[in-house]
């Protein structure tokens, strides 16, 4: 059967040809007919944000008939993975939504365009300089903040009132907060708050209240093992007293409000970011209110207005001007702002913020009022954290688990963390 | 693994002088390559190439964005000597393998045997037992698991053990049970294997006076051994690579207190969360080698207990 | 004792059978409990989805289903469903064809380097896929196939899922050689004996391959996430996750409802094919 040999080769060749054909077919993604510029814009969020974004984008396309915008979105965690794979594969989208923690990595990895080059179409004059600076790295503006948020103590109004403990006022120190939590636990029989020891964000607020910071200007560690030991000793004591949630509750945090002790009805309050706190309302229909984060013992505020998200432009984009136009539209256009509302945090453009404030509804309004009550009293935000922070946020929680499950003393865990953090920041 | 792992003609090569007598060379290699051509193409482009890249990356410092920087064996050295969390993930994974694989296979085999001897309702039971496996480890099922195994959840109420998913000593068991619960795949494979056993063999055994148990040992076990072997090898490999159930139940962090931080979860954490893809690649290759050794051992022992019908009467 | 039980012993088989059924049903009760929980949760109001540890909802929240059926972001549920079906169907076709071809070569044909190549094939199952994700993405990006279904389907046509090759190899090895020998004596080449003799006998393994491929592809989140960009190319599995976003507000209730909806096609697929599994068995095993 000598014929078989040639048959084999023919079949292999045919298979190869087929694959080449498939490859040829698929490659038509980018060029849409009519000479239109096509932009890819990706972001994270939920279906509600998706709907509003689509509307805004449609308006942009109407204003710029030569531009077509293709959007895509996923939930936060999935988005981070997807964007990382895209970017490392050299396939970053033209316009992308970025988190505070991603800026450093994406900028230093050459993924982001210097936006100063597009000053002509991208206006930043109406953004608070301190906030704008968070998107700057080595004096280059890599990203523009799109919304702002801040941390808050969200609480179950009904449960708190029923306990007879006085409601939180305009400010409190960490020790006043701790006493209140103890009182709440005593009166209600359940913890006053989520154990803040697991949260790098809460630690940062506490640290800033003591005049320190998580990271130094040059991306080193801004605190010592002693600082962290003090923090974890503080929270560990509260946990042992039952004033904050036990380890078995705390460990179930997965970022969603539903899985917080407050969301499960196992605690009276929860320290969280203000935007997601709106989710509590669906779980506690009787009412949720926002109180400020505790400050340092001398009244130094630790919380700050943090950009809830940024917009950046891919360094590899073929249409930097059009991409910048889209960013400008999303940040500075009044109609766009009206459509987007507070779905991406309270707008950063100051005149738009004032103008839209009156139109905000429901919990968006609560958040806007909460933020304006803090206006002027907070310090400037720190610059974007170094890229190692992505890993450290999780490490922080892991190391504290060892404390809350009483497998390590606060001192041991803190020493561990500082060692790991130094290694992470060096690499 | 070596060529000797494969029964069948390949092992006979050394005795080349006798081979021609028994098997005259009546087929060319051409047809084999036709059958293999899709696989060869896929293996080269989609498997070998990416594997080679990841092997290279394992010797580099690669943060996903900047070009990889050659660091020699540093990732491997760091893994073995400086990373206690790595070793904890190794212990966690081994524990998981030891719990999940035997439990899942035993359950799958038991149910398959029970169903085989059933005259009526077989289709119903098979579907019902398979149902959990339809779900995968989706986010919804993870939330269900966390509710059922939580403080005050069903398991706590029935057994009084407290929650499992939130206790470091118990959480891994809850993860393993999720895998065991989805025993549909090995069950179906067992069932298919059982059905392949010719009925004549049982009839012959019955004629020889063998009872049920005797039939099981002398007919079912040897005839099922290739399938049993397949399930054992594949479930072991998959157990070493367990990711999704641990990711879903531990809320992506391997909690509580790293108790469900299995190997691939830590690999994912290093590669995609911490952006140390070089380190993650090195972890992947160590895992490959370990699984390779384990599989090779399984293949070697298989020669004493796996029976291939096509070779018995060669 | 023995005397009193004598009348009962007359039908010992029936008792064993009943015990078997009782045992199986009891096991099923435990097995299906989490599924009941899933179903019940899909009807819980928002404040009970996570917080409540009771099986049954306090009231039925049907709006979870209507929200889920609305689809996500202008993409209808039917679109999502047909996208999922297209991918899963393509994957099934690819795996069944390519894996059985390769398996036949490994199980029955002779070629150079068979041993090493087989070992390599098994080894490809062992590398965690996260490690090759980025190189694979780069390859597909170079081919211009990102944001198409090819990265999800093409690998299946190239037998990259060694699990199934190995599965079918094991089945083929279990088949008696005499049938093929006979076919060969009748003048069948390897192609005809593959199609006429081996393939029909391997049917249980092929159906198993089809079922697993369908389910696993259907549930595979990560690959779909990475390769699909346009929302109108999204699948049910992708849509499912978009309901839960930790940075804004989530909708766990609709997510559970959509999980139940997404479960229906795979249940139907399984029910349809598991029946074929029975026929396949009848024709191969018993008469073989």
Automatic annotation (TrEMBL), chain A:
Stored Pfam families: SBP_bac_1
Matches recorded under Gene3D superfamilies: Periplasmic binding protein-like II (3.40.190.10)
Signal among keywords: yes
Region ranges (Disordered): 372-427
InterPro entries listed in its UniProt record: Bact_solute-bd_prot1 (IPR050490), SBP (IPR006059)
Signal peptide residue numbers: 1-25
Top-level lineage group: Bacteria
PROSITE patterns linked to this entry: PROKAR_LIPOPROTEIN
Alphabetical UniProt keywords: Signal
Protein name as it appears in the record: ABC transporter substrate-binding protein
Species of the source: Streptomyces muensis
Taxonomic lineage from the root: Bacteria, Bacillati, Actinomycetota, Actinomycetes, Kitasatosporales
TrEMBL record, chain B:
Residue span, ABC transmembrane type-1 domain: 90-298
Region: Disordered, residue numbers: 1-26
SUPFAM superfamilies membership: MalF N-terminal region-like, MetI-like
A Pfam family hit: BPD_transp_1
Single GO biological process annotation from the record: transmembrane transport
Keywords in alphabetical order: Cell membrane, Membrane, Transmembrane, Transmembrane helix, Transport
Compartments reported by the entry: Cell membrane
Membrane topology label: Multi-pass membrane protein
Sequence intervals crossing the membrane: 32-59, 94-115, 127-149, 169-194, 215-234, 277-299
Cellular component, GO annotation: plasma membrane
Domain of life: Bacteria
UniProt similarity note: Belongs to the binding-protein-dependent transport system permease family.
Protein name: Sugar ABC transporter permease
UniProtKB/TrEMBL annotation, chain C:
Main location as per UniProt: membrane
Top-rank lineage group of the source organism: Bacteria
Topology within the bilayer: Multi-pass membrane protein
Domain ABC transmembrane type-1: 81-273
Organism: Streptomyces muensis
Protein name according to UniProt: Carbohydrate ABC transporter permease
InterPro entries reported in the protein's UniProt record: MetI-like, MetI-like_sf
Keywords: Cell membrane, Membrane, Transmembrane, Transmembrane helix, Transport
Subcellular location: Cell membrane
Coiled coil: none
Entries under PROSITE patterns matching the protein: ABC_TM1
Transmembrane portions of the chain: 18-40, 85-106, 118-140, 152-172, 193-218, 251-273
Biological process per Gene Ontology, one example term: transmembrane transport
């Amino acid at each position: 059967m000598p014929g078989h040999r040639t048959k084999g080769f023919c079949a292999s060749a045919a298979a190869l040809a087929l694959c080449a054909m498939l490859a040829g077919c698929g490659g038509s993604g980018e060029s849409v007919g009519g000479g239109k510029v096509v932009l890819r814009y990706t972001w994270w969020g939920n279906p509600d944000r998706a709907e509003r974004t689509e509307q805004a984008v449609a308006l942009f396309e109407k204003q710029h008939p030569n531009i077509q915008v293709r959007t895509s979105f996923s939930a936060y965690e999935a988005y981070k993975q997807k964007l990382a794979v895209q970017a490392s594969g050299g396939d970053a989208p033209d316009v992308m939504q970025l988190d505070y923690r991603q800026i450093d990595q994406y900028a230093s990895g050459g993924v982001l365009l210097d936006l100063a080059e597009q000053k002509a179409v991208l206006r930043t004059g109406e953004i608070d300089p301190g906030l704008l600076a968070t998107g700057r790295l080595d004096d280059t503006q890599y990203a523009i903040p799109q919304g702002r948020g801040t941390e808050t103590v969200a609480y179950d109004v009904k449960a708190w009132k029923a306990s007879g403990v006085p409601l939180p006022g305009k400010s409190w120190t960490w020790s006043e907060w701790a006493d209140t939590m103890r009182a709440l636990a005593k009166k209600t029989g359940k913890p006053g708050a989520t154990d803040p020891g697991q949260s790098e964000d809460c630690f940062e607020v506490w640290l800033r209240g003591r005049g320190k910071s998580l990271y130094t200007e040059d991306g080193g560690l801004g605190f010592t093992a002693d600082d962290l030991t003090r923090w974890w000793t503080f929270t560990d004591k509260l946990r042992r007293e039952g004033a904050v949630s036990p380890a078995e509750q705390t460990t179930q945090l997965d970022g969603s409000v539903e899985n917080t002790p407050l969301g499960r009805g196992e605690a009276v309050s929860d320290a969280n970011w203000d935007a997601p706190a709106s989710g509590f309302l669906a779980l506690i229909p009787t009412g949720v209110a926002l109180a400020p984060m505790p400050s340092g013992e001398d009244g130094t505020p630790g919380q700050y207005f943090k950009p809830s998200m940024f917009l950046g432009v891919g360094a590899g984009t073929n249409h930097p001007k059009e991409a910048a136009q889209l960013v400008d539209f999303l940040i500075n256009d009044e109609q766009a702002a009206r459509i987007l509302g507070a779905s991406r945090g309270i707008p950063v453009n100051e005149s738009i913020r004032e103008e839209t404030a009156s139109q905000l509804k429901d919990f968006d309004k609560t958040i806007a009022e909460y933020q304006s009550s803090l206006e002027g009293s907070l310090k400037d935000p720190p610059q974007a954290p170094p890229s190692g922070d992505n890993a450290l946020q999780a490490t922080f929680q892991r190391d504290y688990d060892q404390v809350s499950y009483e497998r390590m003393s606060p001192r041991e865990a803190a020493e561990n963390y500082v060692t790991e953090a130094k290694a992470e920041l060096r690499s | 693994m070596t060529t000797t792992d494969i029964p069948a003609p390949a092992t006979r090569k050394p005795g080349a002088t006798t081979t021609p007598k028994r098997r005259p060379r009546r087929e060319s290699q051409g047809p084999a390559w036709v059958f293999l051509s899709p696989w060869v193409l896929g293996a080269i482009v989609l498997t070998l190439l990416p594997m080679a890249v990841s092997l290279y990356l394992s010797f580099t410092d690669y943060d996903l964005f900047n070009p990889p920087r050659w660091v020699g064996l540093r990732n491997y050295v760091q893994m073995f000597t400086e990373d206690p969390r790595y070793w904890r993930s190794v212990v966690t994974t081994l524990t998981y393998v030891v719990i999940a694989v035997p439990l899942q296979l035993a359950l799958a085999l038991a149910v398959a045997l029970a169903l085989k001897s059933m005259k009526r309702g077989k289709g119903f039971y098979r579907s019902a037992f398979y149902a959990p496996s339809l779900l995968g480890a989706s986010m919804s099922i993870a939330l269900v698991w966390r509710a059922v195994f939580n403080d005050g959840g069903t398991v706590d109420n029935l057994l009084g053990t407290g929650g499992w998913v939130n206790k470091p000593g118990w959480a891994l068991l809850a993860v393993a049970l999720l895998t065991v619960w989805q025993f549909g795949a090995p069950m179906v494979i067992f069932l298919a294997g059982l059905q392949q056993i010719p009925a004549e063999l049982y009839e012959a055994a019955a004629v020889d006076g063998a009872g049920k148990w005797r039939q099981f040992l002398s007919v079912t076990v040897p005839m099922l051994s290739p399938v049993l072997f397949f399930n054992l090898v594949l479930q072991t490999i998959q157990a070493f690579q367990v990711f999704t159930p641990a990711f879903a139940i531990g809320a992506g962090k391997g909690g509580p207190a790293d108790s469900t931080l299995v190997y691939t979860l830590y690999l994912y954490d290093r590669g995609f969360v911490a952006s140390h893809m070089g380190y993650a690649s090195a972890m992947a290759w160590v895992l490959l080698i370990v699984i390779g050794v384990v599989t090779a051992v399984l293949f070697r022992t298989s020669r004493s207990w796996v029976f291939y019908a096509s070779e018995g009467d060669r | 004792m023995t005397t009193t039980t004598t009348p009962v012993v007359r039908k010992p088989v029936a008792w064993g059978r009943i015990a078997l059924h009782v045992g199986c049903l009891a096991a099923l009760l435990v097995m299906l409990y989490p599924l009941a929980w899933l179903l019940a949760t899909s009807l819980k109001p928002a404040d009970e989805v996570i917080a409540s540890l009771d099986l049954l909802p306090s009231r039925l929240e049907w709006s979870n289903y209507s929200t889920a059926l609305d689809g996500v972001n202008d993409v209808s549920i039917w679109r999502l469903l047909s996208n999922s079906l297209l991918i899963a169907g393509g994957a099934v076709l690819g795996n069944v064809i390519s894996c059985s071809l390769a398996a036949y070569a490994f199980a029955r044909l002779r070629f150079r380097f068979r041993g090493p190549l087989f070992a390599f094939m098994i080894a490809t199952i062992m590398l965690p896929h996260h490690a090759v994700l980025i190189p694979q993405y780069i390859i597909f990006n170079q081919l211009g196939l990102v944001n198409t279904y090819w990265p999800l389907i093409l690998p299946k046509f190239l037998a990259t899922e060694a699990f199934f090759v190995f599965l079918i190899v094991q089945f083929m090895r279990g088949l008696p050689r005499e049938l093929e020998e006979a076919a060969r004596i009748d003048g069948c080449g390897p192609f005809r004996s593959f199609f006429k003799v081996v393939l029909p006998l391997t049917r249980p393994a092929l159906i198993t391959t089809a079922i697993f491929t369908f389910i696993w592809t259907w549930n595979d989140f990560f690959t779909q996430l990475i390769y699909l960009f346009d929302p109108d190319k999204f699948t049910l599995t992708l849509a499912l996750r978009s309901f839960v976003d930790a940075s804004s507000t989530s909708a766990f209730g609709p997510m559970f409802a959509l999980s139940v909806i997404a479960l229906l096609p795979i249940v139907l697929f399984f029910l349809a094919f598991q029946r074929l599994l029975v026929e396949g068995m009848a024709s191969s095993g018993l008469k073989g």
